Amino acid sequence: MYDEDDLSLLDIEEELESPLDKIEPLTDDSVVAKPDPELMLALLENPQPQERMLAARAFCDMEDARATPHLIRLLNDICPLVRVSASYALGRNPSSEAVAPLIAQLNSDWNGYVRKGVVWALGNCRDRRSLPPLADALRTDISAVRLWAASALAQMAEVGYEAVIGAIPPLIEALVKDPVAAVRSNCAWAIGQLCRELPSNVVYATAIDALIQAFAEDQDLGVREDAKASLLGVGDPRGLQLIETLEQEGWF
User: Fold this and answer.
1) Fewest beta carbons within 10 Å, which of 61, 116, 181, 233?
2) What is the mean predicted confidence (pLDDT) over 168-172?
3) Contact between residue 93 and residue 56 where contact means Cβ atoms under 8 Å apart
4) Nearest Cα to Cα of residue 252 among 204, 217, 203
């Protein structure tokens, strides 16, 4: 049985990989058969945590609406590896019914790996209710969760205009202030994705200004490159002109 104390290292501040990056693959490369959905559905209720985890991970690769209520229940599992697997599986099987439980788990779970999986799932659910908790996670959580929250906020582009407007201010704030370069890079990418959905208004102009500032002033080369890529992707004339001018003058 998994013990929560054995998994305390999952909260390492600098861990920035996938929610399931430390878990071995379900099968080796020689096995091509997919898991049996009926068997996996039954195993989601298995008393052994390893069986529940493996079943939840199977639904990271399979889409089956029947798994959703079981996966929602597993968000409260005592084993963190079950909870992170359930979170990731809900991201692969997005449902409006999962949004409220995912938000509750984000606000209460002690484990950083689980919260990473939750913010990824919330982004994939593409639901307006996810915006406030994702913005809060971007401002206040550990760096690994902030990294994923920035990417998840980019999914607001699929939700609608109001959601895009709401997502841009916390992304700009993090692009300017976050101490971790990888988080700032994700913010630059996310802002670029959202700007493509905006008309030329005040919010759009403010976002472009933030990308221009990051491109010209950020101390990290990766952040500058991501800000540049976003400006090029949006195709804003002001941004394009600045990039051309700075490169001609040998700044980069």
Assistant:
1) 61
2) 98
3) no
4) 217
Residue with tokens 């096995």: 31
pLDDT tens for 3-54 read 333 333 333 344 455 545 544 444 444 445 688 889 999 999 999 999 999 9
Which DSSP state fits 18? Answer: -
DSSP letter for each residue of 24-79: PPSS-TT--PPPPHHHHHHHTT-SSHHHHHHHHHHTTT---GGGHHHHHHHTT-SS
* pLDDT tens digits, 90-134: 999 999 999 999 999 999 999 999 999 999 999 999 999 999 999
Residues 6+ apart with CB under 8 A from 218: 181, 184, 224, 227
Q: Let me know: does 227 contact 239? Beta carbons within 8 Å.
A: no
**Residue 175 CA from chain centroid, whole number:** 16
The pLDDT value recorded for residue 13 is: 42
Q: Supply the pLDDT for residue 59.
A: 94
Identity of the residue numbered 74: L
Cα–Cα distance measured from residue 203 to residue 172, given in angstroms and rounded to the nearest whole number? 11
Q: DSSP letters of 118-139?
A: HHHHHHHHT-GGGHHHHHHHHH
* Gap between the Cα atoms of 252 and 243, Å rounded: 9
d(CA 155, CA 120) in angstroms, rounded, equals 10
The pLDDT assigned to 248 comes to 73
Residue type, 1: M
